[in-house]
Amino acid sequence: MMRWRRRDKGLIMIKYALGLLALFATSVAIALNPCTTQTDSGNYMIYVDPVTLASAAANQGVFLDRLRFAVETNVQELRLKLVEDRSRVPDMPQVVVITCAPQRKPQQRTDFTTTELKTLDQFGVVLELWGLVLDTSGNGQVGYALVSATSQKLANPAIYTLNRVLGSNPESVQKAFSKDPVLVAYATIAVGTRMFQNSDFASASSYLCTGAVKLSKVVAGVQKANTDLIFVTEQKTLLSATLDLRNKALQAAGTPPSSESTCPVEKTQ
Amino acid sequence: MAEVPRRPLEIKGTLEIQPTDIADRLKKIEEKLEAARGKVSAKDFWDKLQASGATGIISSIILALVGFMLTGAISNSVQQRQMELASVEKMQSLISALSDPMIPEKDEDVDTTTLAAFGKPAVPAFTTFLGKDTPTSLRIADKGLHMVGSAHPSWVCVHLTSIVRNRSGLYSWRTFSHTLDLVGDINCQSSQAAVQDFKDSTATIDKLNAFVNTRATQKDFDDLRAQTESILGRLNHAPKVSWWRGLKRFLHVISDDEVEEAG
Questions:
Q1: How many domains does chain B have?
Q2: Helix then strand then coil, % of chain B, to nearest 5
Q3: Residue B49: inside a domain, yes or no?
Q4: Residue A27 confidence (pLDDT)
Q5: pLDDT in tens, A211-264
Q6: Which of B102, B126, B254, B256 to mutate to test the interface with A (most CBs of A within 10 A)?
Q7: Is the ipTM of this complex over 0.90?
Q8: Does the pLDDT at position A4 exceed 60?
Q9: Domain housing B198
């Protein structure tokens, strides 16, 4: 009797290959290239993806360094606070900004699949930032993937994009990134969320409150400019979820409700 | 002394021979004769076969059949081994390309799929990727073992079980996490005891960190704990493998190329 074992092995392999290629064809289009070989070592990692400019003449290496510098400037205050908190929590991790390899180019929210977000979460990434220059006049889009906030289900997923003028050369892009209140708010919330997940509830309540205050200011600004209503709605939902998590952190830390324990942003709502 | 005259003695009477005795004796003789004849005529099949000389032919045929089967099995085994060796050579370049942690996603996907097409011989390579603990290697291992596991679940499950049982500090908590996911996805019923043992061995974060090479944070521990319980629940509620299939697996008689049932 002719059985499988008697068939040509090569034919079987080809059949497998074709079948499997067809099966996984859909996942090919949406996965992202790897970012770095650097490991987490217990710190809070922020990934910064290279921004693709309309003109490809710029030196990518120099441009990436400028981007990292711009992002590090934004999170400097957060880093200093983490260093100060080491007097209370000696093994307090630090924020580390890592620029990704040029091949990693997220284009939209859906590029961050559930698997991708889970992997980032497992490797200690709390936030990923990317940018796109959409035309020669410098109009672009900045994207923020809040990995820890997604794993904590503050939003599903907590990935947001904001239309901004980035410019058409490395200098203008660096300038656009150098003072980014949205990034500061997100980074603080992302770190606070990870602290909550690691059962450091006292620190978490503090950072989540700070993040919520910063985010509420961003929302107020965008709302006033009346430029992006969808963004405003999304941020209000995130703000509410952040405050809920902060309350949970307070309860878990055993802090009794008082006027001091109330986050300033709650008073305004 | 006076001589006594001899005189003939005359005996008078009848010699009575009873006819019944002769008849009985004759009957018994006949019965014995009949029984002896019956024995001669009631030779079993084997006696007849031996008598006919067919045993020699049959034993020759059986010997030929056994010889044919043994030759086939040995030949298959040799061919299988040769194919595996040839596969290793062909897989080498793919494994080398996939070992680059910065391999572009497109190349990674194509190479992983091609490597998975080798089937069983590719499983150890994917298991090695599972132990490397980089985002790329874990993704490759996930994809590859899912692909091979869809056709050869028991083969993949054996390797996954050995990882779940490992307490040597060789693997990171992320490797355990991905392995548990695979155990659940492929429905490795044979890994159930190992998963339960893993759950018992990781009751606290300190117990977990005692045998992983990358320290897990509280969040990592909580996630892994929840995942272990979820996988155990999934295995408990998944359809069980039939006893016959289980027996076949136990006896290792499943054909090399036969598509197996999960479980």
A1: 1
A2: 70, 0, 30
A3: no
A4: 43
A5: 999 999 999 998 888 778 889 999 999 999 999 999 999 999 988 777 777 888
A6: B102
A7: no
A8: no
A9: 57-250
Do the Cβ atoms of A174 and A162 come closer than 8 Å? no
User: What is the spatial distance between Cα A46 and Cα A34, in angstroms, rounded to a whole number?
Assistant: 14
Percentage above 90 pLDDT, chain B:
52
Taking every pair of Cα atoms in chain A, the longest distance, rounded to a whole number of angstroms, is 84
pTM for the full predicted model: 0.77
Token pair of A11, please?
């034919």
Candidate from B113, B174, B257 with C-beta closest to A24: B113
Give the one of A9, A37, A115 whose C-beta lies nearest to B83's C-beta.
A9
* B50: in domain: no
pLDDT digits over B196-244, tens only?
Answer: 999 999 999 999 999 999 899 999 999 999 999 999 999 998 877 677 7
- The one-character DSSP state at A85 is G
CB contact under 8 A, B174 and A122: yes
Residue B137 CA, chain-centre distance (Å), reads: 33
* Cβ-nearest to B135 among A3, A7, A119: A119
Cβ neighbours of B256 in A, within 8 Å: 4-5
What residues in B contact A32, CB-CB < 8 Å?
105
Size of interface A-B (CB pairs under 8 A): 82
- Structural domain includes residue B91: yes
Does any domain span residue B48? no
| Residues of B at the A interface, defined by Cβ within 8 angstroms | 76, 83, 101-106, 109, 113-114, 116-119, 134-136, 138-139, 142-143, 147, 151, 174, 177, 215, 217-220, 222, 255-258
The CA-based angle A59-A64-A68, given to 5 degrees, is: 155
Q: How many CA atoms lie within 13 A of B89 on its CB side?
A: 5
Indicate the pLDDT class of residue B102, thresholds 50, 70 and 90.
very high
